[in-house]
TrEMBL record, chain A:
Taxonomy, superkingdom: Bacteria
Protein's UniProt name: Phosphonate ABC transporter, permease protein PhnE
GO molecular function annotation: ABC-type phosphonate transporter activity
UniProt family annotation: Belongs to the binding-protein-dependent transport system permease family.
Positions of transmembrane segments: 24-43, 91-115, 136-160, 196-216, 223-239, 251-269
GO CC term, one of those recorded: plasma membrane
Organism: Rhodopseudomonas palustris
Gene3D superfamilies, sorted: MetI-like
Domain ABC transmembrane type-1: 85-268
Keywords (A to Z) from UniProt: Membrane, Transmembrane, Transmembrane helix, Transport
From TrEMBL, chain B:
Organism listed in the record: Rhodopseudomonas palustris
Domain ABC transmembrane type-1 as annotated: residue spans: 97-280
UniProt xrefs under SUPFAM superfamilies: MetI-like
GO-annotated molecular function: ABC-type phosphonate transporter activity
PROSITE patterns linked: ABC_TM1
Family from the record: Belongs to the binding-protein-dependent transport system permease family.
Record-given protein name: Phosphonate ABC transporter, permease protein PhnE
One of the Pfam families matching this protein, by short name: BPD_transp_1
TM segment ranges: 32-49, 102-122, 149-172, 201-225, 237-258, 264-283
Gene3D superfamilies: MetI-like (1.10.3720.10)
């Protein structure tokens, strides 16, 4: 039995040499990349001032903070926190809707099957890339310069930065739409606008609605942080309480955010199921 | 063969038409109802977010003139007429940009490694202990729901100002986000290799290493690269709260109205993000072998 296995092995080696003796490049490739990645990682740790003392000191500090956080307690500021949370949800909802409304016409311009010429599509796409490359917090700072401190600046910041993301996602949804239904509308004598309205939109709208709902959910998270730079919502309260080391209030605020995000998550998942149908997602 | 269109008798046609109209009307009602609820929600939200269209239209000009101003030098000339003056601080800025990239690299790698270790406990098909599955899942959920900049705010107080707080914040947030994605990949693996390895008498660790990991590693790497891309954006604003990187310079120049500096730094960030997007996209394309 053993002898047979050995001859089999020799036979297999003779027939498939490339499986037994892989070229040096293939064998050394992965370890080299891993080593380079590790070296860069260690260089990063040194360059960014990591030291065992600092880590230990920081961890013991964090341990203290964690102890001081229990139990979560809003003190007397519960009404203020609830209204700040409402503000955050409003910012997310309004910002996302505005972004979707602005992005829909622009995404048509960026879709290959609507605008065949590269002349318009290319600049529109690069413009969307540029808008997307700037973080929501930076947009919030810019809008604060324009409309002043407060939640309205937050709405506009989310609207603009999501406009870039939606423009790209919508145009991709439009490009993957089926050509045949558009042709059907044209064959029955429809105009170009009819083609978009009756051939394209019925296919694209459910996808877009799903994406918008998903973004409302993720924007609830973004809306919690734009308050840090002064653009309204619960982030303002959170940043303040962290700075004055009111850890019980901080943990209460974080719990509020977790609950709110989970609730929005639940609602938007339900709505998405209702719009696209259960099977499309699962 | 001639096709004959046979018309239904009036009475039947009426019944069918009525049923059709009724169903259309019902759908229309539902659409109108949904639309009304959405508009009402938006109206409530508009009040909540203190939307003031008067201010908006009164000051929208500022928005465009802001972009006009950030593209002018102090002398009033357009920035591109004098690139040396525009990018006067390029050595400092490139250094900070490098620091930003390093923060996101170290943070992403640390987060990915942690997520790699944790995700097998959070995937339903490989979790060794049910209670551990629950605990790890909740832990990952908290890590990814709390935004990274909030972690940074806390870490800046605990670990002191500087890039270290930014790295740790990004690492924790990435652990949460990647842990979830990784465990979803693991839940979709083929379980037959696992049975094969187990039948040779291997323990749980060996099963994960030799049966699961080879199936999922390219997916893991792809998601980690995607996360790196997101984290570069995130690290560019870490400086807003004092956690290192180019954000510190940016917020100072925005707050102090150093207009041409704002455009120069923004341009550097956009170009960097763009280059990172393209290169990680290329690597991910090679990893997935054109499948995705």
């Amino acid at each position: 039995m053993t002898a047979q296995t050995e001859t089999d092995l020799a036979d297999l080696k003779a027939r498939h040499p490339h499986l037994f003796e892989r070229p040096a490049a293939a064998r050394l490739g992965v370890p080299t990349i891993a080593l380079a990645a590790l070296a860069l990682f260690i260089y990063g740790l040194i360059e960014l001032d990591f030291s065992p003392q600092r880590i230990m000191a920081g961890l013991s500090q964090l341990g203290w903070f964690a102890l001081l956080m229990i139990p979560p307690d809003p003190g007397s500021s519960l009404p203020a926190y609830l209204s700040a949370m409402g503000e955050t949800l409003s910012i997310a909802l309004l910002g996302t809707t505005l972004a979707a409304l602005m992005a829909l016409p622009v995404s048509l311009l960026a879709a290959r099957n609507i605008i065949p010429t590269q002349l318009i599509r290319f600049p529109v796409r690069r413009f969307l890339d540029g808008v997307r490359g700037i973080d929501t917090l930076i947009w919030a700072l810019v809008w604060i310069n324009v409309v002043g401190l407060g939640p309205f600046a937050g709405v506009l910041a989310i609207a603009v930065s999501d406009f870039g993301a939606f423009g790209k996602l919508f145009s991709e949804a439009i490009e993957t739409a089926d050509r045949k239904q558009v042709e059907g509308v044209r064959a029955s004598g429809g105009s170009a606008l009819h083609e978009i309205r009756f051939g394209l939109m019925p296919q694209v709208l459910p996808v877009i609605a799903g994406q918008v709902l998903y973004f409302i959910e993720s924007n609830t998270r973004s809306a919690t942080i734009i308050g840090i730079v002064g653009a309204g919502g619960i982030g303002l309260q959170l940043a303040e309480q962290i700075r004055v080391l009111e850890w019980q209030k901080v943990s209460f605020l974080i719990l509020m955010i977790l609950v709110a995000v989970a609730a929005i998550d639940w609602i938007s998942t339900r709505l998405r199921f209702a719009i696209i149908g259960k099977r499309a997602i699962a | 063969m001639a096709l004959a269109v046979s018309l239904l008798p009036e009475s039947q046609l009426d019944a069918l038409n009525a049923a059709y109209n009724a169903s259309i009307a019902r759908r229309r009602w539902r659409t109108i109802l949904g639309f009304t609820i959405a508009v009402a929600a938006l109206a409530v939200a508009a009040v909540g977010a203190e939307v003031d269209l008067g201010t908006f239209f009164g000051k929208i000009g500022n928005f465009f003139s802001y972009f006009d101003r950030i593209f002018r030098l102090d002398s009033g000339a357009r920035v591109w007429t004098d690139p040396a003056e525009w990018f006067w601080g390029w050595q400092k800025w490139l250094g900070l940009l490098g620091e930003t990239l390093l923060i996101s690299y170290v943070g992403t790698l640390a987060g990915a490694v942690l997520a790699l270790l944790l995700n097998f406990f959070a995937a339903r098909n490989t979790a060794p202990l049910p209670w551990l599955l629950f605990v790890i899942r909740r832990f990952l959920e908290i890590c990814r729901t709390v935004p990274d900049i909030v972690f940074a705010l806390v870490f800046v107080i605990a670990f002191g100002l500087g890039p270290m707080a930014g790295v740790l914040a990004i690492a924790i947030h990435s652990t949460g986000a990647l842990g979830k994605l990784f465990s979803e990949i693991v839940e979709n693996v083929d379980m037959k290799p696992v049975e094969g390895v187990r039948s040779t008498g291997a323990g749980w660790v060996a099963c994960m290493r030799f049966a699961v990991l080879p199936q999922v590693i390219s997916g893991f790497a792809s998601y980690a690269l995607l996360r790196f891309e997101i984290n570069v954006r995130g690290a560019s604003v870490m400086g807003f709260v004092g956690a290192g990187g180019i954000g510190q310079e940016l917020i100072v120049s925005i707050r102090k109205f150093y207009y041409s500096d704002v455009s120069a730094i923004l341009l550097l960030i956009i170009v960097t993000v763009f280059v990172i997007d393209i290169s990680t996209g290329w690597i991910r394309g090679r990893l997935t072998g054109g499948r995705a």
